[in-house]
Amino acid sequence: MWKIFLALTVGFLIGFFGFLKEKQIKINSRLQTLWLLLLIFCMGVSIGRNGEVIRSLPVLGGKAFLFAVLAVIGSILFVFVLSKLFLEKEEKK
Amino acid sequence: MSLAIFVILVLGILAGIYMPVGISSVLDQASSMMLLILLFSVGIELGLNRQVFAQVRKLGFRILLIPLGVILGSLFGGAIGAIITQMQLKEGLAIVSGLGWYSLSGILLTNAGNPIGGTISFLSNVFREMITFIAIPFLVKYLNSYSAIAPAGATAMDTTLGMISKHTDGKTAVIAFTSGVICTLIVPVLIPLFL
Prior knowledge:
The complex is a heterodimer. Chain A folds into two domains: about 1-50; about 60-95. Chain A has three helices and no strands. Chain A has helices spanning about 1-15, 20-50, 50-90. Chain A is flat. The relative contact order of chain A is 0.04. The termini of chain B are far apart. Chain B has one domain. Chain B is an all-alpha fold. Chain B has nine helices and no strands. In chain B, α4 (about 65-85) crosses α5, α6 (about 100-110) runs antiparallel to α7 and α6 (about 100-110) runs parallel beside α9 (about 170-195). Chain B is globular and about 50 Å long. The chains are: A mainly alpha, B mainly alpha. Chain B: This is Lysine exporter LysO. Chain B: GO terms for molecular function: L-lysine efflux transmembrane transporter activity. Chain B: Keywords: Membrane, Transmembrane, Transmembrane helix. Chain B: It comes from Anaerotignum neopropionicum.
């Protein structure tokens, strides 16, 4: 977990103290998409190479997927309503 | 973007299944490096936006509403899942209590003597992370940027933070990170409540 904080903080300081030129900022923004897609690919590989996951998918995958979808919908619903009630009002004023 | 992500995810999974173990193990290890590089890049972008923290500070304690909504919403979904699948209520709640942190949720349930629940929880939280990647652009477009943090749960502090940051703004990214940290701290407390 400390590595996550470190990576974010070092990046933040570099951005905050203006070490980067306009052009480098643009490159960073583009590279971000590349890192993101590479990360997603590598995460796919991690799942695919995990034999236990692939073996249990046909039996338990359906239930697992149902719980994932319901948890996601529930979270979206609650956060959306709470943000409409308590967070967004002021922004519009 | 969602389609591209879905395709890349599927390609990754297929590659993981069929490629030689040597290569896939290198890529597996590369993913944590990728994550750190991505977060470094997100950090730079946050640093450039000097108003970010002032904007977030204005929300004050209300920022806690986001992880609260994530937790309550997930449990609500888990309860409905338990009803549909005719599982015990507490098992359903335990499955969703991982909030996307699949490694921990799977192990905790398995160690508590429920290997099937553990596997469902593990898979379910893996799915949650995948769904999050695909859902974020839609949520930003059709609901609001706060709701894009919701599916991410605990992963909002690491794997899905880049995706959130890319599709929203600096303020939302900081809120997402905070919510992700809180969720991550809560998961080890939440799951044992339902074992």
